[in-house]
Every structure is written in structure tokens, then in C-alpha cells.
Amino acid sequence: MLACTIFLSLWFWLASGAVVSYPRPAIYNKSAKYSLKVNGTYMYTVSYAGYDYVQLTMDQGHATEFRIAVVQETSITSYNISPKQLPIHATTDGNELVFSLVDAHYLIVTINDVKEFVILIDPPEVNPPSSSGSGIFNVLDYGADSTGGSVTSGIQQAMDAAAGSPGSTVYVPPGLYYIGNLLLRDKTSLYLAGGSVLRFTGNSSDYTTLFTKSGVGPGTWWIQTEFKSSNIKVFGRGTIDGNGYYSLNTHTFIADLLVPVDTTGFQFDGPLLRDGSFWTVTPIQCTNASFKNLKILNRQDVGQDDGIDVIESIDVTVTRAISIALDDSFSTKTWPYDTGTTVPYPNPPQPLSNVVFDDCLAWTVCYGYKIGQGVYTSQDSVIFKNSVVYNAAVGLGIDHRYGTSYVNNVIFDTIDVENLSGSNAGHATWLALFVESEGAGVGPISNVHVTNIRVRNEGMYNGILVGYNSSSMVSDVTFTDIYMLANTTPATTLEQMKILDISQTSGIVVLG
Ligand SMILES: *[C@@H]1O[C@H](CO)[C@@H](O)[C@H](O)[C@H]1NC(C)=O
Ligand SMILES: *[C@@H]1O[C@H](CO)[C@@H](O)[C@H](O)[C@H]1NC(C)=O
Ligand SMILES: *[C@@H]1O[C@H](CO)[C@@H](O)[C@H](O)[C@H]1NC(C)=O
Ligand SMILES: *[C@@H]1O[C@H](CO)[C@@H](O)[C@H](O)[C@H]1NC(C)=O
Ligand SMILES: *[C@@H]1O[C@H](CO)[C@@H](O)[C@H](O)[C@H]1NC(C)=O
Ligand SMILES: *[C@@H]1O[C@H](CO)[C@@H](O)[C@H](O)[C@H]1NC(C)=O
Predict the structure, then answer these.
(1) CATH, domain 2-122, list 3.80.10.10, 3.30.750.24, 2.60.350.10, 3.40.50.720
(2) Residues with C-beta less than 6 Å from any ligand 1 atom
(3) Cα–Cα distance between 206 and 349 in angstroms, integer?
(4) What is the pLDDT of residues 164-176, one digit of tens each?
(5) Structure letter (DSSP) for residue 386
């Protein structure tokens, strides 16, 4: 009988499925442009600069209905759903766009000429912690102000207490928390419950200034790991809000929002990062770091707000990610010693290797997927795969601009370049692999495989393969299955790929 009851409840739970919409924090407004119903239930949308968004979690495996209403319009004359390659069959019903999804995806939807609506759907959380109990340090027990009324130190206090019990978790319940610099302690986890917001104040006097970026100003690492630490985790469905537009424009102060640095076994799963004022997520001198369900929603009117820059790190994976920014969405870099932004780095420059970006969605005014511009130490074995460029000036690139080291073994595999627009530093193309000199050295780029790429828009300018001189060439680049525009057969020549600016290269092969 008991077994039967358990079976029935399990059956009911599986059959009924679940959709979770996280309460919209009071500091954000609801979208004035779009509403979303999932299986008949309204989700909490958020109005934002440039685009609006909504975040939810759903069980996968059964068809779930999405109904997006474009609320100020009476009918739908055009729409776009990105990634275009997803098997989504949409219909219209008055001012509603209707489709179903079996699996969770990150989507960018436009209807008529209304701004983008970014729909962030995650699979259910795996083993979310309870809010109290053994190994749980709830920040409310450490006096954290969850009302946003003051700059609170309760989260750091809970973290410091947790550090005394390796393997424990700091629990942040729903609420608004303005915090100063936060140091993630060795062997602890930070859990941000859905509906919680950690917010940067923007006021430099609340932070330790760690570096100055030339041409921009002073900045900090807002949330960073302890040096020489291991097994630190940041997870949950809460929001990390960099308040970047305000911080940059009112206080001329910038921040990297999340900085795993000199740490091993770092894991990130789930929180949403928004409104960065500078490079938003920067693993620096890490080994074995993983990022999944990573959602970076920056504004496209805030300077150098790169999404994720993997810097001088080894064995890093970024999977199931969306990165919207004015500056580069997904990138790897290596920098000089003790200069500008690297002043707080704990170690001399380290090489970068084994970095994988998989199942990513990029939307930027600069580069979607990029290596560079800093190549002060080597960058070896970097893979970008199964990914999409919603829009960018340059889709895929290696820009060797600073430093004398090399880039070797790079794969761009199975990427859909949906659209390109505008230009960045004179480049506007689906592919730019080049070495340039800004007086800080040059170096070679070699062994690049560009495979199974759909290029739906060629960009305004030519693609480029340009080395610098005979010791800093672009060499051994192989193209396979590059589908230009609507072509169903792959390109067989560089001309067909509109790659027409070519110099200082060797071993360029188009396999078709
Ligand atoms: C939505 O409803 C359908 C039909 O009842 C069900 O099969 C599916 O599991 C539901 N989806 C979710 C995520 O609850
Ligand atoms: C929310 O809407 C109110 C009223 O229109 C406006 O004053 C406020 O600036 C908005 N806040 C945000 C974060 O957009
Ligand atoms: C910044 O913080 C300092 C110290 O708390 C305070 O005196 C100052 O008024 C704040 N400035 C703004 C613009 O909030
Ligand atoms: C990498 O880090 C993960 C998460 O901390 C850990 O489980 C795994 O054992 C580490 N792998 C190696 C090779 O150290
Ligand atoms: C490409 O992007 C530009 C600029 O955002 C936009 O005007 C154009 O409609 C887009 N094209 C397609 C096919 O989406
Ligand atoms: C290539 O240019 C760099 C930077 O100017 C220079 O140091 C190097 O010697 C040059 N290599 C050759 C073979 O000329």
C-alpha cells in the first residue's frame, strides 16, 4: 500500500511536471512589452535596457506550452526566434506567439519591431540546499539586511563562519542585498536562492580599489575567491547585479563581478549576472573550473563589459551559457605582469590551455567568440563548439594584438552565425584571424580548424587571414563544411567564404 502510494505520487509528480518562476525583485519593473505564460501560468518578466527578459526553470521531457504576448500590439506581422536551428514550430494567435518546448533553452525572441525578449529557461536545480540545518550558514542568521536598506556585511560574516566548516554552504534567501567586496572562502559554496539579488552599490567608497584600467578608471573585483583555494562553488537561481550603468556613469568606477582567481575545482551553476561595468566573469589563473547555466545579461550601452573572459587558466569549461554585452561575449586572454588590470593578479603571467565553450549563445556589438587581444603567454587548445551568434560585428575571431606569445590549436566547430551588423575596430565579418602590432609584440597563430559553420550574414567587410611577418604568420588553417548564406553545399574556396584579405599565411586548406 505504501509502495503504491509512493508510486502514485511519483507518477503524479512526473506527469504534472513543474515550472518555476522566481519572484521579481521589487527594484525591477515588469516588461511593458511582453508577457509570457508557460503552461497557462504567467511568469515574472523584467523590463531592462535594450531588451527585456524572463527567467524560469522547467522540467524537461514533455511538451510545454509557451505563449508570448506582445502586449501593446493587436496582431503579429513578423517574428524571430533564436537559436534559429532549434526545432521550434511557432504559430500566432492574435497578439500571441505560441510554441512548445520539450527541453530547456535560452531564447531571444522578437515580435514585429518590438525590442528583444530574452527567455532564460533552465532545467530544474540539482540538489538545492535547504535554508537551514547542518552545514548551512543562512545569511539572515548573520544579520544580513535583505531589504536593500543598507550596505550589509552579513553575507561576508556568514561566509567567514562557513570557512570554519569546509564543505559548508552559505545560503542567501530571496531579498535585496547591497554588499561590498565579497571574499569566497576556501571549500565553501555560495547559494543564491531564486528571487535573491546581490547588488553592487556603484559607490567606490564601499569597495577596495584594486586596479586602474587605462582610459576607463579605477575598479575592483566585486566577488572573488580566496587565493590558493579549492572546491569553491557558486550556484542557485538568484541574481548578481553589477549596477554597472550607474557605477560607471555616476562614479566612474568599474568592477569585474565574479572573479574565481588562483583557485582549483571552481564550479558555477545557475545564477544570472546582469549590468556589468567591466569584464563580468573572469576566471584568472584557475585550473579545473566549470561554468554551466551561465546567464550574463549586460547592457549594450556600457563600455568594456565583456561577458566571460577566461584568463591565464587551464582546464576550463563553459557550457549552456548566454552572454549579452556591448563588448566580447566569450573570450580568452593572457596579459602582462603587474600592469593595469593585472596589478592584483597573485602570480606572474600563466599560460592558458584546454578551454572549451560548448552550447553558448552570443549577442554583442564586438566579437561573439574570440581569442585575444592579449597573447602575452601562450594560448593552446581552445574550442568553441555547438554555439550560436545571434548578432555581432565579428562572429569568430583571433585577434593577436598584444604580446609575443603564440596561439595554437583552436577549433571553431558547429556554430550558427545568424546575423552580423555594425563593425568593431574596422572589422565586420564572420571570421577574422589576424596578427597586428600595437608596439607590444607580435606572435604566430597556428593550427586552426573551422568546421561546420553556417554563415547567414557575411558582414559588411571581408573575412581576414592576416599574419604580421614570417615569424608571426597565420598558418595551418583548415576549413570544412562552411555554408555561406542559403547554400546547402559547403564553400570550396576562400572567395566563396568572402575571405579576401589574406597575407603572411601558410597552409590554408579548404576541404569543402
Ligand atoms: C505542461 O503541460 C503538459 C500537458 O499537461 C505536460 O505534459 C508538461 O509536463 C507540462 N510541463 C511542465 C514543465 O510542467
Ligand atoms: C520602474 O518604473 C518606474 C515608473 O515608471 C520608474 O520610475 C523606474 O525608474 C523604473 N525602474 C526601473 C529599474 O526601470
Ligand atoms: C558613497 O559612500 C560614502 C561613504 O559611505 C558616502 O559618504 C557618500 O555619500 C556615498 N555617495 C553616494 C553618491 O551615494
Ligand atoms: C575538478 O573539479 C571538480 C569540482 O570541484 C572535481 O570534482 C574534480 O575531481 C576535479 N578534477 C580534477 C581532475 O581535479
Ligand atoms: C541583423 O541585425 C541588424 C542590426 O541589429 C538588424 O537591423 C537586422 O534586421 C538583422 N537581420 C536579421 C536577418 O535578423
Ligand atoms: C617580425 O616582427 C617583429 C615585431 O616587429 C620582429 O621582432 C621580428 O623580428 C620580425 N620577424 C622577422 C622574421 O622579421
Answers:
(1) 2.60.350.10
(2) 17-19, 39, 58-59, 62, 64
(3) 29
(4) 999 999 999 999 9
(5) E
- Rounded CA separation 384/358 (Å): 6
Atom nearest to 80 CA in ligand 5: 14
**Confidence at residue 52, expressed as pLDDT on a 0 to 100 scale:** 98
| Residue extents of the structural domains in the chain | 2-122, 180-510
Q: Nearest-CA neighbor of 507 among 469, 468, 465?
A: 465
Pocket of ligand 4 (CB under 6 A): 231, 265, 267, 288
- Ligand 5 pocket test, candidate residues 115, 419, 420, most atoms within 8 A of CB: 419
User: Residue 77 and residue 73: Cα distance in Å, rounded?
Assistant: 10
CA 322 – CA 331 distance, rounded (Å):
13
Residues of the chain with pLDDT under 50: 1-16
- Sequence-distant (≥ 6) Cβ neighbours of residue 187 within 8 angstroms: 163, 166, 167, 229, 230, 231, 232
Q: Output the nine-digit C-alpha cell for 460.
A: 559588411
Cβ atoms 197, 27 nearer than 8 A: yes
Classify burial at 499, counting beta carbons within 10 Å of its beta carbon; exposed 0-12, middle 13-18, buried 19 or more.
Answer: buried
Q: What is the 8-class DSSP label of residue 424?
A: B
Global confidence as pTM: 0.96
DSSP structure class, residue 31 = P
Identify which ligand lies nearest to the alpha carbon of 81.
Answer: 5
404-421 per-residue burial string, b: 16 or more CB within 10 A, e: under 16: ebbbbbbbbbbbbbbbbe
Burial of 305: CB neighbours in 10 Å, binned 0-12, 13-18, 19+: buried
Strand pairing class (330-334; 367-375): parallel
Taking CA atoms only, the protein residue closest to ligand 5 atom 6 is: 421
What's the confidence (pLDDT) of residue 5? 38
CATH 2.160.20.10 correct for 180-510:
yes
Spacing, Cα 64 to ligand 1 middle (Å): 5
pLDDT of res. 17? 53
Which of 64, 100, 105, 122 has the most ligand 1 atoms within 8 A of CB, as the residue to mutate? 64
Sign, CA dihedral 264-307-311-346, equals negative
Q: What is the best residue among 200, 203, 208, 246 to mutate for testing ligand 3's pocket, by most ligand atoms within 8 Å of CB?
A: 203
With residues binned 3-state (H G I as helix, E B as strand, rest as coil), the percentages for the chain, rounded to 5, are 10, 50, 45
265 alpha carbon to ligand 4 midpoint, in Å? 5
Q: Specify the pLDDT at position 512.
A: 80
Which residues make Cβ contacts (< 8 Å) with residue 453, sequence separation at least 6? 396, 412, 414, 415, 416, 417, 430, 481, 482, 483
